[in-house]
Structures are given as C-alpha cells and as structure tokens.
Amino acid sequence: MKSGETMKEIVKQKYGQIAEQTKETNSSACCGSGCCSDEVHNIMNDDYSKLEGYNAEADLGLGCGLPTQFAKIKRGDTVIDLGSGAGNDCFIARAATGETGKVIGIDFTTAMIEKARANATKLNYNNVEFRQGDIEKLPVSANTADVIVSNCVLNLVPDKQVAFQEIFRVLKPGGHFSISDIVLVGALPESIKNATEMYAGCVAGALQKEVYLDLIIKNGFVNVAIQKEKPIFIPDDILINYLSEDQINSFKQSGSGIFSITVFGEKAKEPCCGPGCCN
Questions:
Q1: Measured at the alpha carbon of residue 90, what is the angle toward residues 10 and 105, in degrees to the nearest 5?
Q2: Domain boundaries, given as residue ranges, for the chain
Q3: Which of the residues 1, 146, 194, 257 has the least number of beta carbons within 10 Å of its own beta carbon?
Q4: What is the dihedral of CA 11, 12, 17, 21, to 10 degrees?
C-alpha cells in the first residue's frame, strides 16, 4: 500500500505529462477500441462537444461523466470545479452562471493550472479563475460555493473522507454538488489495484459504490442521488498487462464491475432541528 503523499506525487507527475499533450495525442495513446490501448486515463470520457461553453482546447478527454450538465447551475452562481484540468468544466459552468456569476477551478498540477489560465485568457473571461491546491485542503473560504462540480478526480484523492469534509465546508448552506466519479461493484484484482497507471487512470483508487455513497451521507449531505450511471469496460489489451488470460476471463465472469456514476448531494439550509431529521 503506497502512502497518500506517494500517490499524490504519482498523480501530479502523470497529469503534468498529460497537460502537455493534446486530446488527440491522449486519445491515440488510449483509443479504448481494444486495438491500441496502453493507457487508461481517457477510456471513460463522455462527449462534451454539444454543451454550451465547450472549448476544444480545454478538453483533454480525461473525464468519466458530464457533471456540469446535471449540476443545476443558475445565473449568478459561484461554481467551484475540483480537479479543473485545462478548464473544460469551468468554461461550461461559466456559460450557465453567466457574467454575473463566478467560476473557480482548483487543480493539483502546475502544468494544468497554466494551461487553464492560458485558455481563459484567450477566451477573455474575467470571472473564471484557477487556483493551484489540494482537494484535501481547498484554497477557498467556507460557505463560498453555490455549486461544486468534479469530473473523475476524487478517485485520485487518497483521503476521500477529508475531501468530502472540505466540499461540505466550502459549500454555502443550501448549496449542492454534482460529481462524476468511478466506483466498484465487487472485488477488483489486487494486481490492478496496485498498478500506478491504473490509479492515475481513476480505477485503482475507486471505492465500492455503497461505501462511496455512505461516505457522502455520513459527511452531512442530504438528498443524495445518482443522476447517471454507466459501466466502464477496460480493453483486454490493457488488462493483459496486469492479469493473465485466465484471470481476465475469471474477472469478467465474477460479476464485479467498474462504473461511472454522477452523484448529487446538498448541504442543508438549516441545521438539524427536529425529531427524526438526524441519524
């Protein structure tokens, strides 16, 4: 088991390299077709191109959902994107919140922050900013955000308990989040869980689905619901790097699986104040 700091350094190095590449380069390294896949980080992404505010230069193909599509962002909202990358979700959120709102992108990787800031400058957006920081210690004051979004990033955070505590702290009372992430159903083979490439690809850091949802509820969020769910299939030519053919067949027949879920949760407007409202 690698330490949290070790895993953070792996993620920082991996995504620093990705930031220097184009989406086409990333895709050619991992087409997800089963014929040329030697990476994992972008076999899960959805198509953003039809969403208002989409900017191709900010889309590195690294997500596993479309959280901003489900985030119920209103005009004038303050939106925070955790793990903002090159700015894709931030620019889509900006289209929803308008010029009267504010969007803050937070990312762990210096190269990603630089790329996102350059993209924002090209677009002449003065209400979108990017801050370098750790999701376990967000560089944002308490009760700041109306909405928090995140796309396939919390899997990369070693201490997810602290991450959800930080999300709760930063949200305003009555605020909410929409987070796309990877979860597991059943057991993942140890050889996959321990592979650093799989960790940086948002698979080996995944929690069991029920554990993930329970963690959200235990951190005080209400009205928790799955907005979208889809299975993730890792091509055989990736799996063969970590499992034998027999192990691959056993894994496929085990009933275990990897899923992308988009989860919604709210921070209550008022503290618990009556019988039956608290656990």
A1: 50
A2: 4-267
A3: 1
A4: 90
Model confidence at 36, pLDDT cuts 50, 70, 90, reads very low
188: its two tokens = 């993942």
Where do we find the tokens 């901003």? 68
CB atoms closer than 10 angstroms to residue 237: 13
Q: 94 to each of 44, 81, 175, how far by Cα in Å?
A: 24, 11, 17
Q: What is the Cα–Cα distance from 40 to 133, expressed in whole angstroms?
A: 24
The H-or-E segment that residue 82 falls in is strand 78-82
User: What residues contact residue 55 under an 8 Å CB cut-off, 6+ apart?
Assistant: 87, 88, 91, 119, 123
Residue 238, SS3 per DSSP: helix
Q: What angle do CA 194, 197, 199 make, to 5 degrees?
A: 60
If we measure between CA atoms, which residue out of 70, 122, 62 comes closest to residue 91? Answer: 122
Instruction: State pLDDT tens for residues 151-185.
Output: 989 988 889 999 999 999 999 999 999 999 999 99
Residue with tokens 């159903």: 185
CATH class of 4-267: alpha beta
Q: How far apart are CA 266 and CA 228, in angstroms?
A: 17
The pLDDT value recorded for residue 34 is 35
Nearest residue to 125 via CA among 97, 161, 147, 94:
94
Structure token pair of residue 71: 């985030």
C-alpha span between 83 and 33 (Å, rounded): 26
